[in-house]
Amino acid sequence: MFPAVLRSVLLLSILQTLAKGVPEVATKRQATQLREQYDFVILGGGTAGLTIADRLSEAFPRKAVLVIEYGDIEYGRGFFDPPQVEHAPGFPGASTWTFNSLPSPHVANKTATVVAGKVVGGSSCVNGQFFDRGSRHDFDAWDAATGVAEFDRSEHRWNWEGLFPYFKKSVTFTVPPETSVEKFGYTWDDSVYGGTTPIHSSYPPFQWADLPIVRDALKEMGVLSRQECAGGDKAGMCWVPTSQHPTTSRRSHSGLGHYAAVNATRDNYDLLVRHQAVRVVYPDRQAQGGRPPLVEVRALSDGRLFNVTARLEVIISAGALHTPTILHRSGFGPTEILQKAGISTVVDLPGVGANLQDHSASIIEWNCESIHSINGVKDTKPLDLSPLPPDMYDPAFIADATAGFDETPARGPYTLAMRNTAIYIPLTNMSTDFESITTTIKQQLATPPSDNAATYLPPDISTSQPMAAGYQHQLALLLALHSNPSAPSLEVPFGGGTSLSTVNLHPFSRGTVRLNATHPLEQPVLDYRAGSNPVDLAVAAAHLRHLRRIITTPTLRARGAVEVRPGANVATTEQLVDYVRRSVQLSIHHPCCTAAMLPRELGGVVGKDLRVHGAEGLRVADMSVALLLPSSHTSSLAYAIGEKTQAADIIIQEWSQAE
Asked: Hey, which family's this protein in (predicted)?
């Protein structure tokens, strides 16, 4: 372990130096530094893109790999690192994209704000570091039969059995020290891990003192504790590791693990930063010409355009919000939308930029009798517990916390990231709402898509037969998930405190990502259309009704807990739905599914081999290819997609056989 620690500390030092502006020889910054051609060109240096580049350059030492990244190399500080004093949601440190959606009329015209990494390493550099995995039922549904024979017979499996080896391979998990296990009660199962990659997950040596209060209250609600939730079964209370190094407690991300850790030893692996992948271009506008497309690139320094040649293939890995815009600019998408932007259609694929999904969240909050003030700020800190977040306002405490973070091994509150525990509850456990919700879903499925379910789709694709049929297929999968007593519908991550978020894991509403027709090189137009399928509002109300029972548990009653939000006067389903409309957070920064893996007949964009339908030498590999949101935060799946893209005989075996 000691050499691995030294290597990680060295890599951290390298990126800290780079953040100060010292150039790195292997990093390219202008077209003149590039080779005449590459074998593989990857558009996007994020979580999945760098994983693919690492594995391809390793497997084919004589083939040249190029990654084109809009951002630059930066130090990716953690979610809760010095000098922060409040452990609150934020995206400090590395550069980010901020997307603001159109208003959603079904939820009081609220807008979604979505943040993604604009940096080498992508969102793995700026996320909350909550490193859980989805339920096996999510992926079994994703891979379920479609009735399209060619698609269903594919050798590539994206079910749990097909993905689990790549979840394991994608991360190195480090067992916590005995002192932490005894103090906090961490549990895990070694058999669900086993990777040796320099992408790390671990448990911190610190937790706030009120964490056991919430855990005890949830147990009193009947939530069962699980030893491990990363092995496919996660209904219950789970410990969740953090994407950080186990000794330094610094963020572990793909910029470190899949670029800085390997680039010095790979003379076939190039990274071009501060350049925008504009589009892919088939010289004769025919995507079936037998050769991969050229890649048109724009230098951010002066706006100059130039082409990069890929000898074998191009892989788009720009994320769920930028991958569709690259495809749109390339002529892939709904013809009507492309025409409005003055773009000729290369392949008519109405699913490009459709099927947008994200996790949303609502809040319950309570107050306790034991309250006090720190520096005049009222806080709900129980007087008999320490340490708690308000202690961060004590100069002596924060000085010690900062010193502890710089020790080896690191200690103290700054070793925390987002949280390390959550509950995952199936809808079937919410007995008062389960039957009415599933009845509504069945009614949406009961008639032909053109008569019912398709009315919940965005207007610009609701008349598309493939899109209507594809949504009908998804509704059937969602009905099965919500009827499954082992498939979570609700996530509640927590780390103590006096509020909890109810996260809707499997939304029914579908939004869009569309090219900005007047400024096609700028940010896309997001339309979340939250609540456009009313099932989402009913599910959110059910989640709130179920979770607010925590306030009546013996543990919280003993502390004088009184509900603040939604409030005791919000009692009926209609009142809860209204509360959701007014208060819901539309995005917790998990966009996905905008180039979905489905047959073309069902509105899909890629096949199970990740090839874009109707195109030669072009694949997509990032969170946009997911069909449904997983019951987890998305970074672990993004890594697994990157690993499976190259490792499961999808690219490496294909080109190994061709040599």
From this structure: Belongs to the GMC oxidoreductase family.
